[in-house]
Task: inverse folding
């Protein structure tokens, strides 16, 4: 069901990774993506399990979009193409070694090393997101095309949300498979929650979250309600 709803609309955006360095006046290497972008859509489509809501400032355009959705044919899901992920492996190993050395030298407490993988064909962004969502129940998912850039992805971590005037963040450290019997999943969860490495990384993430929230929240209002636990992503905030 598609319905027309008059709303004031929402503002969307994305924040570049280097924005953290920028606000702390740290030196960083600029990339091609902008540090911060805000987008105000002329027409907004909200997807829910049993309802599609279309809203916007142009009522005629909204009804046109509703008609397109109602008459849309079922799309055949494209089969995923294999991606070779072992490229630049020696360079990646070097990066990991350098990161470990910098941590030992006290420069950082935690480093997340990433790398780019070259693809032979153009990426089908919507199909990539759909394939990923069929296998995951993330706390957040995104897909965007803006300013000549396209991106999609999803994460089990709720970075930040404002609910009834309350700012919520759920930093995570460590994941494990939830495939198997109830006993197997419980055993894997117990191993994860008692893993020393994962505990240390989780503590670091929680401390950093507290520091960040104290920058924007009223004094003495930041509190940890659930320090360590295994979340159930199925009941988290959706897209």
Result:
């Amino acid at each position: 069901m598609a319905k027309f709803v008059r709303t004031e609309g929402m503002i969307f955006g994305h924040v570049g990774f280097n924005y953290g360095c920028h606000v702390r006046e740290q030196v960083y290497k600029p990339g091609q993506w902008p540090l911060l972008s805000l987008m105000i859509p002329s027409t907004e489509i909200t997807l829910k399990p049993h309802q599609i809501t279309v809203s916007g400032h142009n009522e005629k355009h909204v009804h046109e979009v509703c008609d397109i959705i109602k008459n849309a044919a079922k799309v055949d899901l494209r089969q995923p193409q294999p991606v070779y992920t072992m490229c630049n492996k020696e360079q990646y190993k070097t990066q990991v070694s350098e990161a470990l050395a910098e941590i030992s030298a006290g420069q950082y407490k935690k480093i997340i090393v990433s790398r780019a993988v070259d693809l032979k064909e153009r990426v089908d962004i919507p199909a990539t997101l759909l394939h990923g969502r069929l296998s995951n129940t993330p706390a957040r998912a995104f897909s965007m095309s803006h300013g000549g850039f396209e991106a999609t992805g999803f994460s089990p971590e709720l970075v930040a949300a404002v609910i009834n005037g309350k700012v919520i963040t759920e930093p995570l450290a460590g994941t494990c498979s939830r495939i198997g019997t109830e006993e197997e999943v419980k055993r894997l969860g117990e191993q994860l929650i008692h893993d020393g490495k994962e505990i240390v990384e989780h503590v670091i993430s929680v401390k950093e979250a507290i520091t960040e929230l104290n920058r924007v929240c009223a004094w003495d209002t930041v509190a940890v309600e659930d320090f360590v636990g295994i979340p159930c992503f199925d009941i988290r905030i959706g897209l």
Notes: Helices lie at 19-23, 59-70, 89-104, 125-135, 182-193, 196-216. The longest helix spans residues 196-216.
